[in-house]
């Protein structure tokens, strides 16, 4: 067996600020702060970092420095997270991706998206709901898993995702993935509705970066009609 010790840090913090250790390991976290490092959670959920490892500022950019560092030397990481009772830090998302519902609930989409993508039938998931009454999601189906699912579910070999987007069985399979993702969040943060899209998102299609990160602004624009339909 190989023990993997996950840690966390940024360029601005001279690399590591927290790390799991062989004698202090908690799976799903990035460990506890290293000696001399401090971590706290701001009111909006952002992780704040301090210590001798934190940089002094951006070269010749006072405005960016003032935005990143507060007067007491705490660095705004841009990451959303939490700290448990033993001091282990968990990253739950990026602040710039945070969704704020019409009811004022802050939702970190990555918590839901990562769990839903773990389902064998799901390729991609994007959570939506900014300024909306509830959280919803756009789902794409894994093109390699889809034929196997069709055979398993007794669907025609010639069927496409577009053909079955409203199929009861396919929607039930996706709902199972949604239900699993919803277990990780509160009722207010849970996905209430979803739409299955006919095509997967890819780098070639322009929806994914070369490192396979979702281009949310591109998808929001391309799927505007589908998102409106979720809330109509």
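^ Assign residues to that structure.
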């Amino acid at each position: 067996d190989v023990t993997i010790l996950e840690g966390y840090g940024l360029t601005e913090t001279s690399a590591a600020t927290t790390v799991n250790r062989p004698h202090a390991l908690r799976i799903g976290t990035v460990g506890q702060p290293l000696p001399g490092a401090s971590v706290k959670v701001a009111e909006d959920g952002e992780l704040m970092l301090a210590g001798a490892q934190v940089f002094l500022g951006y070269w010749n950019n006072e405005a960016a420095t003032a935005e990143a560092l507060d007067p007491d030397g705490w660095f705004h990481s841009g990451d959303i997270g939490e700290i448990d009772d033993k001091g282990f830090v968990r990253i739950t998302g990026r602040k710039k991706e945070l969704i704020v519902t019409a009811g004022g609930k802050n939702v970190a989409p990555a918590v839901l998206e990562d769990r839903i993508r773990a389902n064998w039938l799901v390729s991609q998931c994007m959570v939506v709901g900014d300024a909306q009454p509830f959280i919803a999601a756009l789902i794409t189906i894994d093109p390699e898993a889809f034929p196997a699912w069709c055979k398993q579910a007794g669907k025609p070999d010639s069927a496409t995702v577009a053909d079955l987007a409203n199929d009861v069985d396919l929607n039930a399979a996706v709902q199972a993935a949604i239900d699993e993702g919803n277990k990780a969040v509160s009722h207010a943060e849970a996905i209430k509705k979803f739409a299955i899209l006919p095509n997967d998102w890819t780098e070639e299609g322009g929806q994914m970066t070369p490192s396979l990160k979702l281009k949310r602004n591109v998808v929001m624009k391309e799927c505007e009609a589908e998102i409106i339909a979720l809330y109509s």
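The chain has a mean pLDDT of 95.
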